[in-house]
Amino acid sequence: MPGALSRTIRVFIIDDHRMFTQAVAAALAEEPDMEVVDTVENLAEARRRLEEVEVDVILLDQRLPDGQGTHAAAELRAIRPGAKVVLVTAAMEPSVLNEALAAGCAGFVTKGDSIDALAAAVRAAASGATPVSPAMLNRLTSPDVNGSALTEPLTPRETAVLLFLADGMSNEEIAKRLFISIHTLRNHIQSIISKLGAHSKLEAVSIAIREGLITAPGNEY
Predict the structure, then answer these.
(1) Global pTM?
(2) What would the pLDDT profile of 104-125 be if each residue is shown by its tens digit?
(3) Which of 91, 110, 140 is the last residue of a domain?
(4) Is the Cα dihedral 139, 144, 148, 149 positive or negative?
(5) Are residues 121 and 38 in the same domain?
(6) E-state strands within the chain
């Protein structure tokens, strides 16, 4: 599991279901390491507010009044480059998950998951891990989700990094486990992403599992 962060995680919620948003915001505000900095109901308002507030994690609904979350995720990340986007959705179709991967989403949570699972996903994303439930991972690694073939063999160290990423470890935890610096680890991760033709760590993990390079983990995140 990802290690605890030393500062408050600033969460930004984009969802047009007001009752759901209010309940999630209230629940996350009770977490000692989280602060909900804003909630908005559409993408236009999100674009404006993200220019004005500091954000660590964006919880993004898929179906919004003025567009699809997966279609806007890359733009939102460009507005606030340091923020991680976690898709919160009732839609688990492979096509939706594939779009989210291509847009660089850090993880997925379904609207049927618990608040505890959502809070865990926020912490995992903020720490650099890849929050995704077993149900989502199964869909991500199904043959229906298209992924690029491996262009160059992974080194043993890169395979080890992939296994730790699949287990939901943060960069800091993986670096400590492998006795390497964060800078060296980031170089390994970029090499893995490039070799797998992925857009993110999460997509790299899903492609590696689907192609049999590593096995799927048994833990929740």
Answers:
(1) 0.72
(2) 888 888 888 889 889 988 998 8
(3) 140
(4) positive
(5) yes
(6) 9-14, 34-40, 57-61, 63-64, 67-68, 84-89, 107-110
Q: What's the mean pLDDT in 83-105?
A: 82
How do the residues of the chain divide into helix, strand and coil, expressed in percent and rounded to 5?
45, 15, 40
Q: Are 93 and 185 contained in the same domain? A: no
Spatial contact of 175 and 127, defined as CB atoms under 8 Å apart: no
> Do 168 and 85 have their domain in common?
no
Tell me whether residue 19 is in a domain. Answer: yes
> Per-residue pLDDT tens for 68-79?
999 999 999 999
Report yes or no on 92 lying in a domain. yes
Closest CA to 100 of 109, 113, 84, 87: 87
Question: Region 168-182: what's the mean pLDDT?
Answer: 88
Q: For residues 96 and 43, give the distance between their C-alpha atoms in angstroms, rounded to a whole number.
A: 18
Residue 193 Cα distances to 49, 90, 102, 119, 151, angstroms: 31, 28, 12, 27, 11
Question: Is the C-alpha dihedral spanning 193, 151, 163, 155 positive or negative?
Answer: negative
**Number of domains forming the structure of the chain:** 2
Report yes or no on 77 lying in a domain.
yes
Residue 183 belongs to some domain of the structure: yes
Partners of 85 in beta bridges: 58
Cβ contacts of 95 within 8 Å, gap of 6 or more:
none
pLDDT at 61 over 90: yes
**Residue 189 structural domain:** 156-210
